[in-house]
Automatic annotation (TrEMBL):
Keyword tags: Metal-binding, Zinc, Zinc-finger
Domain (C2H2-type) ranges: 33-60, 62-90
GO molecular function: zinc ion binding
InterPro entries per UniProt: Znf_C2H2_sf, Znf_C2H2_type
Descriptive protein name: C2H2-type domain-containing protein
């Protein structure tokens, strides 16, 4: 009897931890650090700073011109195009430059 109750409890705690955007109601007085660029909310300032630095503020800016592949390094896109889209022109879409394309032969 008590075994079943125990396993339910474990699943609950995992469920909460897998949803970083939903701040748990366990501590409503905890300070919240919402990201100003997206919907994410963090309970620790450090997590917000990490998010801004590596996730939100550092969006992968180099896009494959032929599919949705995106990466932080233009060389990755060139390697990707050669491998996934053989025969097509190899160039990189730099979304940080307002959709201008960067031609690399
Ligand atoms: Zn964000
Ligand atoms: Zn592609």
């Amino acid at each position: 009897m008590s075994l079943i109750f125990y396993s339910n409890k474990v699943e609950d705690s995992v469920w909460f931890q897998r949803r970083p955007r939903r701040v748990s109601q366990s501590d409503p007085s905890a300070p919240k650090y919402p990201c100003s660029n997206c919907q994410s909310v963090f309970s620790r300032k450090h997590n917000l700073q990490y998010h801004l630095k590596f996730e939100c503020g550092q969006m992968p800016r180099f896009n494959c011109p032929y599919c949705t592949y995106r990466t932080r390094h233009s060389s990755n896109v060139r390697a990707h195009v050669r491998k996934i889209h053989p025969g097509l022109q190899v160039y990189v879409v730099d979304i940080a430059k307002c959709c201008k394309t960067e031609f690399i032969s």
